[in-house]
Amino acid sequence: MSGPSVNSFFLGESSGISFSISSVDEEAGKLQLANCNGGERAGDWNLNVTSGTSTSKVTISSTRNLQLCLPNATDCCPTPLCVVETLQVLACRGSVIVAHLLIQAEIYANSSFAGNVSENATIIPNQVFQPLGPCPCDLTAGACDVRCCCDPVCTSDLKQLFNGSCFTGVFGGDVNPPFDQLCSSQSMEYTPDWFPFLCVQSSIDNTPFLGYFYHGSTSTPRVPSFKIPLQTSPGKLFTGYTQGDPIITEENEYFTIPQQSMAGQCVGNAPVAYLQDFDVRCLTTLASYKEGLPHGVRINSGTGDFIQQNVIYRTITDRGKFITESESLHTEALCQNVTFVEHYTFIWKDENIEQINVTVFLGSLCPGEILTQRFTVEFLGLESSDATELFGNPGYQVGRPVRAANMNASDTFGSLNIWQPAGRGLCTSATYTPVLFGLDSLSGCLLEVGINEDCSLLRGKVTEELNSLIQATHVGKRDNSSYSDLNDWVEIIRLDPFNSDTNVSTGSLKGICPDIPANLNIHIIFAEVGAVQGIPWQEILAVQISYSTVIWQFQCGLICENSISFLPITASVQFIKVPAQPPIPMTRYQINYTEFDCNRNDVCWPQLFYPLTRFYTGEPYPHCLAKGLSLAFLLVLAAIMSNPWFSKFWNSSL
């Protein structure tokens, strides 16, 4: 056993069976004569039996204190190996021994810290004179760490077990190793002739490994808080919301609405973030349907006041848009009235919420039906009716739809969408959802294709389905781009799947078509060009659309009949962030003379006077300035004394 208790099991009928424990004398070198006259306690050991129908659990536990002894302490472990003992457990029916068990107990002292934690401040020693950790491998307080020969707790007997495998280097306690400039150091493979004249004669306790890394200071323990930093008492002011903060209810809890997780599943208790719109759809059935947060919950406005939700209930008119599948027939008596759609509109001003309007659409859900619930959240500024700006910020915010325009049409309004599959995932029944700024996405649908499909017509059909997602020629640079100003828009760069230089195979084999443009790739390049009241100002710089081709092959079993196969087509959106300003190109000097590049060489001549600048923090600036002035004085003095007229003046004065 390696702990203070051990369990064993006695198999068989336990009625009429008595259990006893005894300690074995190891000094005699043999077992004592077993008898059934023992009890359930032997020294520091207790025996506990839990009887069952056909099995009995036998527990042997130690009552000894396993803490290492402190000076002048009793009832503790004098050595790390605290208990070495052999125990014998007997199961008897009357005076007849039915079973016996031998236990070899070797228990080490508890190495965890059991003292009182001090709330006093910790004084950090000055790193100029002594290292912060003289024995870095000493990781356990009050216990000997294996292979840590500098651990003061390790006795000489314990060190003999790992004396040949001690940790080396700084981790093993060699925090002040001899440096190469020391005269007594022999670590250099090649010693120049001038080394004895320029070497350093110094004590090993004064090494460059100490340095001015940290000056002695006071570190006060900080207790982390796991509570929401909310102040709701009338005498204290609430600091207000900033973008991304969770909205808080009157009960000091998160205001939650179902949202999609990173795995694509809906989470019912996801908190709503301030100034972050979203539009999600969640699948549910009548068996798994759960009501969300009650609409009577009041919301903290941001100033410590609470506002009530303005709720309007309506009845859904077209259930077919939300009921995607029916597994079985149902009766009206088993149907329930549930929530189909919830629209939340938050009216905000500065850092506070002024009003909350909720529109709830209710409908009937029956057993066996799958419901697609929709939840939307939109933040509208009090001084703006279309939510185009956040704190006067004209840039895009994450989660906002990307604005598109068709400049070739009389109605310039355009759209940039991806698919929202429903039902069987067919392209004919799929709906569209707008591309949201800053959110990479991938969507697709299935296109029905026959075995006798003409490859050229199939390419045109797939291209038409993909182009239906992009009903635009330009994309707005900002969220408030004006349709009347062409400078507010960037033209969409289209890379056609086929051009005059590409030889497209017509496909001579039946049921196989190469070069099918089944993947649409939308790359949106944006940059952070500034900030308005701490909120990033993000603009779209360019948009590129390209296609990826695949080889389509009709999928069939042993016999290919004139049936229908499916071709999956996809559309992906990727947002690429680039610097607002292009990086400064390297000069010809930096390209050719790489030996002066400080990032590539150990010697950096451009930073020769770096210790005299404010960027150097190795030691206090007055010390560096004094040393620099002293060095400059010596250089000036040497230049004066090397001048010929100084020699003439010196000789004439003598």
Output the keywords:
Immunoglobulin-like, mainly beta, extended, 654 residues, 6-stranded mixed β-sheet, 7-stranded mixed β-sheet
Concise description?
By secondary structure, the chain is mainly β. It is built from six helices and 29 strands. The strands form eight sheets. The protein has a seven-stranded mixed β-sheet, covered by helices on one side.
* CA gyration radius, whole angstroms: 40 Å
- Strand arrangement in the largest pleated sheet: 20-25-26-28-27-29-23
Bulk shape: extended
Q: Percent of residues in helical segments? A: under 10%
Number of domains: 5
Task: State the end-to-end distance.
Answer: 94 Å
Overall pLDDT score: 79
Specify the structural class.
Answer: mainly beta
Assembly state of the chains shown: single chain
Strand content: 25-35%
The strand count comes to 29
Strand count, sense and barrel status of the largest sheet are:
7 strands, mixed
Low-pLDDT sequence parts? 212-216, 224-237, 384-391, 499-503
Q: Counting H and I runs of at least 4 residues, what is the number of helices? A: 6
Keywords: Cilium biogenesis/degradation, Glycoprotein, Signal
GO cellular component, one term: MKS complex
Domain Tectonic-1-3 N-terminal: 111-219
Family: Belongs to the tectonic family.
